[in-house]
Design brief:
Number of domains: 1
CATH class: Alpha Beta
CATH architecture: 2-Layer Sandwich
Structural class: alpha/beta
Number of helices: 6
Largest sheet: 6 strands, mixed
């Protein structure tokens, strides 16, 4: 008998509800959501070690529902590079979580030099973890969506791109306002 491709069969069973990304958690730095087997993180502030705890939890809890693998899209909204402690915590987190992920897309949503710096930091994290085949850094969600959807959903990826992009865009728009620490 031939091998069964668990990732392909799992991709067939994942549903993306029309309501879009469901908020999982929110902290001062970011908002974390789930949609099907995809985690969506919108970063509003530079991450520090405390922020990474919620980031990690978002992926781990989703993986419990989809043990065959999850996708991750992180959109960083016009913010600066993480602190040294934030960078170290993220590097440790990604080294731990890569085995759980099918694909990860990082998008620095910034302009000019700031965008170049953020892409450089994100690319450095990717290189440090050795996961270049499952991770991309792109200038926008639409630029990275063909690759991401194909990696996450296989043959269904092409048909789902428009839906995924619009749902992620709605989530990012809804969660982009700064959060008051008192509101948490």
């Amino acid at each position: 008998m031939g091998k069964v491709n668990l990732a392909a069969s799992a991709a067939q069973s994942v549903r993306f509800e029309t309501l879009g990304v469901k908020l999982f958690r929110r902290d001062f730095a970011s908002s974390y959501g789930w949609w099907g087997n995809m985690a969506v993180v919108l970063g509003r502030q530079p991450p520090d070690a405390a922020h990474v705890v919620n980031y990690r939890s978002c992926v781990l809890e989703l993986h419990k529902q989809f043990p065959q693998g999850v996708g991750l899209i992180t959109v960083v909204k016009d913010t600066s590079a993480p602190s040294a402690s934030g960078r170290d915590a993220m590097l440790a987190m990604f080294r731990e979580l890569w085995p759980l992920m099918t694909a990860a897309l990082f998008v620095p949503n910034a302009e000019g030099f700031k965008a170049a710096v953020l892409r450089s930091v994100m690319s450095g994290l990717v290189l440090a973890t050795g996961q270049r085949d499952r991770v991309r850094v792109e200038r926008s969600v639409p630029a990275g969506m063909p690759w991401f959807a194909g990696k996450l959903l296989g043959d269904r990826g092409d048909a789902q791109q428009k839906l995924l992009h619009s749902g992620i865009q709605r989530f990012c728009e809804a969660e982009s306002s700064p959060i008051s620490p008192r509101a948490l």
